[in-house]
Amino acid sequence: MNRKLKTRANRPILLALMLMPFMMSKQVQAADNLNFIGNLVAVPCTLRPGDDAVTLDMSEISTHYLYANSRTIGKQFNIHLEGCDTSIADSVTTTFSGTPSPALPGLLALDGSSVAEGIALGIETSANLPLPLNTPSEAHTLIDGNNIIAFKAYVRGEPQAIVDKSIRAGVFTAVSTFKLDYP
To answer: Coil, helix or strand for 132?
Structure first.
């Protein structure tokens, strides 16, 4: 009887000793549960740091100027491409997207936080050719090394707001996203 008690008393200790290597192991084998996928591409140019979030200050614009001229003179902004390799691609197109103006199709509507009303923002090429939203620009020929693609932005009064003289003055913002395509 005494012998049986000793055997039963030793079983938990023996089981603990057998499981100890597993409990002290720092590595635990588990099923694969993390997969990595991707697509490595050869890009002909890189965007200059800071050009991924361009802010263009349109300055102060007089409502009287818009009533008389319907739009402002374009204000230039540039997209800088660095380290271009023409063996990968020799041209690039740029497409601007954003919320379109209901009154001026192809132009950018103001954000809802804007105080100003009755205007929209347009984008044009450096040669003053309109570049409507969601329309690719003409191809810009690349050279090896650094390239600058120039555009202009302008403010246009909505036709009915000009007729009614109802353009509302105030601060305005609008946001557009540009996409570069290497055809």
So the answer is: coil
Lookup: tokens for 99: 């919320």
Length of the chain: 183
pLDDT tens digits for range 84-127? 999 999 999 999 999 999 999 999 999 999 999 999 999 999 99
Mean pLDDT of the chain: 88
Q: Domain ranges for the chain, please list them.
A: 46-181
CATH 2.60.40.1090 fits 46-181, yes or no: yes
| CB 122 within 8 Å of CB 156 | yes
Q: Identify which of 156, 154, 91, 163 has the alpha carbon closest to the alpha carbon of residue 125.
A: 154
Report strand pairing: 119-125 vs 145-157.
antiparallel
pLDDT per residue over 147-165, tens digit each?
999 999 999 999 999 999 9
